[in-house]
Write a structure and sequence with these properties.
124 residues; elongated; two-stranded antiparallel ribbon; 6 helices; mainly alpha
Length: 124
C-alpha cells in the first residue's frame, strides 16, 4: 500500500513539473455551479478557449504595456488591471498625465476607455 501511495505522489509531482514547464498553473476560483459547468463544457472547445483568451486580452490590461498607466500605479503591486479600473485611475489622476509623452498605443487605449466608460469624456 505504501508503494502505491508513493507511486501516486511521484506521478503527481511529475505532472506538476510538466505543467510548470509548459507555463501552466492551477488557479482555483469559486463559481456558481451552473457557471462552473458551462465553463467546463466550453473549455473542451479550442474555439471557445481562443475566444476566452481574446476576451481576457481585451478586458484585462497589462499595466507595464502603458508607461503612463504604470507611473500611476507606482504604489500598487499590480501586473494587470481591468479596463474599468484603468479608466478610473486615469480619470482620478489625469492632472499627472503628460499627454505629449503618451505613446500612440496608450492614446488609443485612453480613447477607447473614454468612449466605453466616460461617454467620450475624462472628468479631470
Amino acid at each position: 500500500m505504501d508503494s502505491r501511495q508513493e507511486q501516486l505522489r511521484t506521478a503527481k509531482r511529475r505532472q506538476r513539473l510538466k505543467d510548470r514547464q509548459a507555463g501552466q498553473a492551477l488557479y482555483q476560483v469559486k463559481l456558481p455551479a451552473a457557471l462552473r459547468d458551462r465553463l467546463r463544457a466550453g473549455m473542451r472547445s479550442a474555439a471557445f478557449v481562443a475566444r476566452f483568451h481574446a476576451f481576457l486580452r481585451h478586458e484585462i490590461i497589462r499595466v507595464d504595456d502603458y508607461p503612463g498607466l504604470a507611473l500611476l500605479c507606482w504604489n500598487r503591486d499590480l501586473e494587470y488591471m481591468t479596463r474599468e479600473d484603468a479608466f478610473g485611475l486615469y480619470e482620478r489622476n489625469w492632472r499627472l498625465i503628460d499627454v505629449d509623452d503618451l505613446s500612440p498605443e496608450e492614446r488609443a487605449l485612453i480613447g477607447a476607455l473614454k468612449e466605453e466608460f466616460g461617454h467620450n469624456v475624462i472628468n479631470a
